[in-house]
Amino acid sequence: MMKSVVKKAIRTAQSELWFLKEAKDEFYYRYRKFSRKPHDKDFGVIALIKKGEPGCFIDVGANQGQSIESIRLFAPRARIESFEPNPGLAQKLTARYQADPLVNVHNVGLSDHPGLMELYVPSYKGFVYDGLASLDIESAKSWINADRVYFFKPDAIEIAKCRCTVETLDTLNLDPIFIKIDVQGTEYSVIEGGLETVRKHQPILMVEGFEEDPRLAGFLASENYDPYVFSDGKLVPGAHHAVNTFLITKARLEKSIIQP
Q1: How far apart are CA 57 and CA 250, in angstroms?
Q2: Separation of alpha carbons 210 and 238, rounded Å
Q3: pLDDT score of 260
Q4: How many CA atoms lie within 13 A of 54 on its CB side?
Q5: Nearest to 143 by CA among 87, 163, 154, 245
Q6: Mean pLDDT across the stretch 113-136?
Q7: What is the pLDDT of residues 198-243, one digit of tens each?
Q8: Is the sign of the CA dihedral 146, 149, 155, 158 positive or negative?
C-alpha cells in the first residue's frame, strides 16, 4: 500500500516538473548501470538460464534502454535484438550502442502484420510518458488516471502520434531464447506475428499484462506453454496476478532452466 502511495506521489510531482524529464531519464540510466541493479527485479529470471544456451534475447518495446541494461546485467554476452518504433528513442539507443556489436536496435514496432501504423504517445501536463506509448490509442491514454496521479485532470492528457514502421517477428529470421514483450496492450499481436518463430525455437516469453488479454490464455493452450512468475529467485507455476508473466514450454524448462 505504502509503495503505491509513494509511486503516485512521484508521478504527480514529475508531471509538474516536466522540464526535468531528460535529466531524470539520464540519471536513472546511470544510477542503474553504476549500482548494477535491474530496472525490474523480474529480469533476475535470466540468471536461471543455463550459460551457453544458444539464441538471442529479443527486447520488444525498448523505450529508454532499461531492458537492454537489465538483460546485460544477468547475461553480459547476450546478443540483443531491440525493437523501438518511436524514432526519437530509437535514435538515442542507436547512438548509445553503436560501438556494441552485440546490440542491434531496430526502429520498428512488432505486430501481427507489416505496414505503417500510428504510434500514440501520451503526456500529462507536459510530461511525456514515452514508456506508455502504444499502437493502440485506448491503451495509450487510459493508464494515466485518478488512481495513479493525485488531483487528476483529464483535460491535461494529450496524445501525440507519429507514423512508424511495423514488421512481424516471423519475417526477421531470428533465433530467440528469450523475448520480453512490453507494448502497452498489443502483446498478443506481437506473439501472433511471431508464431512460427515461437514454435521453432520455443523461447521463454516475458509478457506484461498477461491476465488482461484472454487471447493469451488460448495461446498457452494451443502452443503447450505454461505460465510462471518469478518469486524469491525461482520460477513459480501460475500467473498469480503478477505484472510480468513468464510463458515457458516444458521442453524449454527442462533443457535451459537451472532447477533449484
Answers
A1: 19
A2: 11
A3: 67
A4: 3
A5: 154
A6: 89
A7: 999 999 999 998 988 999 988 888 999 999 999 999 999 998 888 8
A8: negative
Quick one: cell of 76?
553480459
Among residues 42, 71, 45, the alpha carbon closest in space to that of 56 is found at 71
Secondary structure class of 183 (helix, strand, coil) = coil
Describe the crossing of helices 21-35 and 66-74 by its angle, rounded to 10 degrees: 0
Give the number of other CB atoms < 10 A from CB of residue 150. 12
Q: Burial code of 33-72, b = ≥16 C-beta within 10 A, e = fewer?
A: eeeeebbbebbebbebbeeeeebbbbbbbbbbbbbbbbbb
Neighbours of 147 (CB within 10 A): 9
In a 10 Å sphere around its CB, with 0-12 CB exposed, 13-18 middle and 19+ buried, how is residue 131 labelled?
middle
Phi, psi of 95 (to 5 degrees): -65, -40
| Stretch among 34-38, 50-54, 205-209 having the lowest mean pLDDT | 34-38
User: What are the C-alpha distances in Å from 11 to residues 7, 32, 149, 204?
Assistant: 6, 19, 6, 32
Q: Are strands 244-249 and 225-231 parallel, antiparallel or unpaired?
A: antiparallel
User: Does the pLDDT of residue 185 top 90, yes or no?
Assistant: no
Q: Is the pTM of this model over 0.70?
A: yes
* Alpha carbon distances (Å) from 166 to 92, 93, 120, 130: 19, 18, 14, 18
* CA distance linking residue 138 with residue 184, whole number of Å: 10
Q: What are the structural domains of the chain? A: 2-256 (3.40.50.150)
Rg of the Cα atoms in the chain: 18
CA 215 to chain CA centroid, nearest Å: 19
State the alpha helices, DSSP H only, in 112-214. Answer: 137-142, 187-192, 195-201
- DSSP-derived letter for residue 154 is G
